[in-house]
Specification:
By secondary structure, this protein is α/β, with parallel strands linked by helices. It has two domains: 47-122, no CATH class; 124-216 and 251-383, SGNH hydrolase (Rossmann fold). It contains ten helices and twelve strands. A five-stranded parallel sheet has the order 9-8-10-11-12, with helices on both faces. It has a three-stranded antiparallel sheet with strand order 5-6-7, with no helix packed on it. Strands 1-2 form a two-stranded antiparallel sheet. Strand 5 (94-96) and strand 6 (101-105) form a beta hairpin. It starts with a helix and ends with a helix.
Length: 384
């Protein structure tokens, strides 16, 4: 028989061995995935990404207080040549204008962000009485590319303020974040946007849902929205299992599937409906904006003329075409259900004349495309 002291030693030794094994496996898993994570964004998990940071509720978000926190330097590359300063140092990722806003520089281009975690110039969280606040929500089509002054929220703000008489100020906040689907947009609305007390919300979300709703095994909204695990994702072992093993046993994507599309969009609509109904309790107007798209309603052969479709199969084109038309129809139906909700076509929808000149790719407008989008919204809002 072991004495009490020997039992305690055995328990302590066993725990110590298990701790050593666990941290050993964590180190090995971290080495094997080489900084990768379930979002496939290097530097996100350890706080070294210059633009994004991990968030337990959203998965990732634009860095808050970025101008007062040090970030690593990302090289600016022009014509395959790294650009350095006079001393040969890489151009810094972040050039701070003030402690309220700054410039994030990467090899892709420059982005202005503010310390509240939004793209665009700084704004006071508590709006003044003479300010009419509009918040634009969505994914990359809202956040915009690398032309800071040619995102549609910035263009719309200038258009509206030129038309305003008296002392009233129109403020359009860009709350779009690249890659966000309706689940993340809904979560961010509840977590951050409600506190901004917007008078009106522009909601142009859907493209990232269209890419994610092809799986036929989704049975609930919680399953539809499960894109990260706030606690487990910090473990290298979990990330390794998810990346290296989970993907091997993952069910293949359904080949569309109009039935699959229509079934899964029920969860998309639930997300929009939750935002809409909550906004109603806050006396906030909601404008559902149709998704921008370089697609036609018919005559698929016309797509061969567009350079943006060079990497797409006819089957993929058909899927995305049917998906965007269906999503926009759902938004129209939603707008008819609520008095505080309206639907606006963005002006870059199917059959827009010459629209191939307004897109960088199949869904992201250029600066010129954003002018069209902003003007469509300006006309609607200015009339009211």
């Amino acid at each position: 028989m072991f004495s009490k002291k020997q039992k305690l030693k055995t328990i302590f030794f066993t725990l110590l061995i298990n701790v050593v094994i666990f941290f050993g496996l964590e180190w090995i898993a971290g080495y094997l995935i080489q900084e990768d994570n379930i979002y496939r964004t290097v530097g996100l998990m350890n706080g070294n990404h210059p633009l994004m940071e991990f968030d337990g509720d959203l998965g990732y978000q634009i860095r808050k207080q970025a101008m007062v926190r040090q970030a690593p330097t990302f090289p600016l590359i022009i014509e395959e040549r790294k650009i350095t300063d006079a001393s040969g140092n890489l151009i810094p990722t972040i050039l701070s204008f003030t402690d309220k806003e700054g410039l994030v520089r990467s090899e892709h281009g420059d982005l202005i962000i503010n310390n509240l975690g939004f793209r665009g110039p700084y704004f006071e969280k508590n709006k003044s009485p003479d300010t009419f606040r509009i918040v634009a929500m969505g994914g990359s089509t809202t956040a915009g590319m690398y032309e800071n002054e040619l995102t549609y929220p910035r263009l719309l703000e200038r258009m509206l303020n030129r038309a305003v008489t008296g002392k009233q100020k129109i403020e359009v906040i860009n709350a779009g974040i690249w890659g966000y689907d309706s689940c993340q947009v809904m979560t961010r609305y509840k977590k951050e946007i409600i506190d901004l007390k917007p008078d009106l919300i522009l909601l142009m979300s859907g493209w990232n849902d269209i890419h994610n709703i092809r799986t036929s095994s989704i049975k609930s909204r919680s399953q539809y929205c499960m894109n990260h695990h706030p606690l487990l994702v910090h473990s290298n072992i979990f990330r390794f299992l998810r990346l290296k093993i989970g993907e091997r046993v993952k069910k293949p994507v359904a080949e569309l599937g109009v039935e699959v599309l229509q079934s899964n969009t029920n969860y998309y609509v639930e997300n929009l409906r939750e935002i809409i109904e909550n906004a109603g309790t806050q006396s906030t107007q909601v404008v559902l904006v149709s998704l921008p798209a370089l697609f036609e309603i018919e005559n698929l052969n016309k797509f061969s003329e567009y350079e943006q479709f060079s990497d797409f199969s006819l089957q993929e084109i058909k899927y995305r075409q049917s998906a965007v038309i269906y999503i926009n129809s759902l938004k129209k139906k939603l707008a008819k259900e609520y008095k505080h909700v309206s639907y606006v076509d963005n002006g870059l929808s199917p059959l827009t004349v010459g629209k191939s000149k307004f897109f960088d790719d199949t869904i992201h407008p250029t600066g010129s495309g954003n002018r069209v989008l902003a003007f469509q919204l300006f006309k609607y809002l200015n009339e009211r």
